[in-house]
Amino acid sequence: MTTKKKTLQVAAGLSTAVLLTGVPVPLAGVWGNSLPKAYAAEQQAGGLTQEQAVQQVRQLLDIPADYKMERTSYLDESRNSPYDRPLWNLSWVKDREGYVSAAVDAVTGQLMQYSHYSEKRESDSSPAVSEEQALRTAEQFLERAVPKAEREKLSKPNEYPGLLHISLDPWGERVFSFTRMEGDTPFLGNGFQVIVGRNGEVVSFLRMWYQGELPDAKAAIGVDEAERLLAEKAAPSLVYTRANELTGRYQADRNRYRLVYRYGQTDPQFVDAATGTVLNALGEPAEEGGIKPLGSTDNSREADRLIGKEEAQKIAEELVKRLPGSYRSEGSRGGGSSSGPDGVETRHWRFEFTPLHVQGKNVEPVEISVSDRGELVEYRVGEPGYPDERGRKIEKAVSWKAAQESAVKLVKTLLSDRLGDIYLIDREPSRANVEEVLERGRNFAITFGWLKDGVPIEDREFRVTVNPETGEAEELLLFEEGPVRAEETAAKIDRKAAAKAERERKKLMLTYFLPELPRNGMPAGTSKPLLVYRYVGDQGVVDAVTGEWLSFADLRQKEIPQDIDGHAEKEALQFAIREGLLAVTDGKVEPDKAVTRGDMVQMLSRMVNRIGLPLRPPYFGDEDRKAYQFADVDVKHPLYGVIQKAIQYGLIPEEGTRFEPDRPATRGEAAEMAARLLGFGELLEKPGLFVSPYRDVEKRLVPAVALVHAYGLLPSASADAFQPDKTLTRAEAAKLMKALLEARDLK
After folding, report:
1. Tens of pLDDT along 697-721?
2. Which of 92, 215, 324, 712 could form a disulfide with 100 if both were Cys (CB 3.0 to 4.6 A apart)?
3. What is the DSSP annotation of 387-443?
């Protein structure tokens, strides 16, 4: 696949499952090639067989003839299905060119989800169909895929907030959300979503339809009383939210955060129309509280200082001393590395310790992993890969509270220098959920969140798993995501002002509402719809510094490029924007502006991950890496990590005292970088092996220019002049990146 993954999160409260635009994935569970034996009897007794499910999808959808059936899986409703229904997940594939996924209700045969990715969907730059034509196509699709009784209960298209909080490629795709109506009362988050591609074909479909009974639509509480209660008690939380969730620039804004007020799952935001109780998004009475860190210490480690294996081992040995008992170091058990979308590489080493205070034959080793940033990455008791399911029921277990206390104790022991940055996500599951965990032989998972200056950082959590039989915390798993970058660190308005700013842009309405399942920890029970008063309208958040309402729709609009239509390199520019190689600012890409050396190195660092080239940095062995310093790019420079990654992969040589990231890049420099990205770095030092195809190329550049010429990467306007000193435009850089991706298949 050549598309990036963009998160689409189900907002209806049915699940916290994730869909990926362009790259369809199962809604839940793990793909398998056969029906699990445990579910075979139930499936055959009252539902569709695999063959019937495939036939049903083919009747509803036009699966291209050259697409081959790839995978099928059966998903029981108890396995975290967002629909609380058994599903058949099906997929078809055509090499790298296309992918179709579909989910079918295994009992009724109703289509639940469909998505068709194709390379043409990404690269198509032909005129898009009109909104009227796209809507007609969407309605015709609903006529085939949705029963008439349900279609008759739908709102006008996009009359209410969509089923999903989404950010799609802005290339003319039309999104239509049809909300379920019960009389005059909307059931927000229930209904259907259809996305029509610019070619007029349906490329995505989603069904969210609660099957059970709904409460009576008569409210005991009047709208005036509901308004008073919400004005008195409803207020959003101050959080650091991912900038890319606001802008849709999932690559360019990775690890960038913005200080905003937004309603979280536990914030008071609804009024129960039957009782007048103020509820949170979980459907529970909202309680005043607040997040309390586990301690007062915060991380004072030097930013971006890289360490080697030897220093990492010393840190691991100091950490193990904090644990009760005594341990013998067994040295390193290897390590690994990962690279984020920004191209920054993170490495870690694993160190094993044998407990000397434990008697018996089956002594479990302790493993501690430390990153090259000097941070704990993982703690584990026993061999890698703890059993998610033991294959037997756990008959006797510690309480959830005891497991939670064990997890907190481990965190306080190993992360004692960061307790001011950590809080417990304290949510106790229902008895039924605990029983299910024990029935399956699973570990308890206790979740913690991160703070920045006392403010929660959304979507940054880690977990500790606890053995239910022993009550021992067996694993602490941190997720290396890079530093949190935020321009503002202090709010200038309070929660009440933020709540007022939001209310002014919405209308108080009586709606049906299906409580969400907790995003963190275990579900507290099964959700049932409620009749509530809530504010309905433009979706967005409030800037905590300016008090400005940040409309998601307006922010997305700013990401739609207004200056590339008619450009000769429009397709390449679209590719670069989708891949996060070029950013859109206030609707502008500035395609004819000179690309800087900093822009180029950032593009190439990201392309290393995208292409999967045979490049290997010199530190994949046990040797330590040393940062090569440029005088004009210190550790606080936003491109420091990217430039270090480029040096480590050999995309730029270790030479000179200045990098000059803001200077326009030349065609000669771009040729060198491109040749290195293709793995020809060593050949660049051997000009005698090449003959220049151009008359104006100095000897030093001959290998790079000859190589990019051979691959057709940087065409010249003249047959005999390369113009190596001419600056490269952003559009030309985008074309080069796209050509590099295509050149991968030629090697």
Report:
1. 999 999 999 999 999 999 988 888 9
2. 92
3. -S--SS---S---HHHHHHHHHHHHHHHTGGGGGGEEE---PPPHHHHHHHHHHTPP
